[in-house]
Design a protein that fits this description.
Elements (H helix, E strand, L loop, with lengths): L2 H27 L5 H35 L17 H5 L14
Helix pairs in contact: 1-2
């Protein structure tokens, strides 16, 4: 079995187990609610959470790609007020020697 398939199976089993546990807790907190209704509420909550997570991942990935395409060095540096140390020296090599060749005698 491949690593990805094994991971997906574990994830599905974990989600089903946690959903069943949440439905059980919901039913015990409100005994008047039938177990089927509790299960439906938990499944709808899981679906809404998964959709929100997926949308967040898409928006962040598109923003990161957009900012890199517009000249950002690293999207993680957008949270800081300055560029990384040494970046200005790389961008403006005017202080550096013009060539790397050895001077002739």
């Amino acid at each position: 079995m491949s690593q990805l398939r094994s991971t997906v199976i574990k994830l599905v089993v974990c989600i089903i187990s946690l959903s069943a546990l949440l439905a059980l807790f919901l039913h015990s907190a409100n005994p008047a609610m039938p177990p089927f209704a509790a299960t439906v509420y938990v499944l709808l909550s899981v679906i809404i959470f998964a959709a929100a997570l997926y949308i967040t991942i898409l928006v962040r990935a598109n923003f990161n790609q957009w900012s890199i395409n517009r000249g950002a060095i690293d999207t993680g540096w957008l949270w800081f007020d300055a560029n990384p140390p040494g970046l200005e020296a790389i961008r403006n090599p005017t202080d550096a020697p013009m060539s790397l060749e050895k001077p002739s005698k």
